[in-house]
Amino acid sequence: xxxxxxxxxxxxxxxxxTPLIHLRDSDPSIRQDxxxxxxxxxxxxxxxxxxxxxxLLRRPVALALKQVQADLRNAGYSLKVYDCYRPTRAVAxxxxxxxxxxxxxxxxxxxxxxxxxxxxxLGYISGHSAHSRGVAVDLTVxxxxxxxxxxxxxxxxxxxxxxxxxxxxxxxxxxxGTGFDCxxxxxxxxxxxxxxxxxxxxxVLWDAMRRHGFTNYKRExxxxxxxxxxxxxxxxxxxxxx
Length: 242
Fold this sequence. Notes:
Helix content is 26%, strand content 12%.
């Protein structure tokens, strides 16, 4: 009886309405490569709460991204999102992974040269995230006419996220100097060690997002928040299909 009651409570919690909407309903032209719904991320496996590879956001955030997309489309580019709303259970799973020295598979390509146990202290992983409030998004810029990208092969030994683009895991992003979720100072938005072309590519993204009210996190070129829609309320409903 207790199990049935608990299941009913859990179902009711999941059914509660939230202000989150599917990005596809706002702008289906924005490309989606939802990394935490699959194995191509720093934990090496799908994270709990990602029941579908879909981007959910608060409506004002999705509408602002639609404006960014319109600007970029005129210049021959498109946005591509890697992560949007993130259930709090996924944030907790990231923290547990960081504390587990024996977690498998080996994903050190995401933190080359760093001691995994120090990722918290260095600010690369946090116990709380604006993603859980539906106001943050991780994204990049891709050419509108980009060809098909090779599929991620979990058995392939890709180069570190700081390696030249051709040696990293496949991605059709403009070359930003590192891959997504790269725990390295090279990922800081302003970094002197990347090439002029890579700096220019980051600027394309930074300028387009800033024009429409987004704020960049200085340690991650891919992370932006839309603070004017942030009421401080986080969610743990799973990411589902439309």
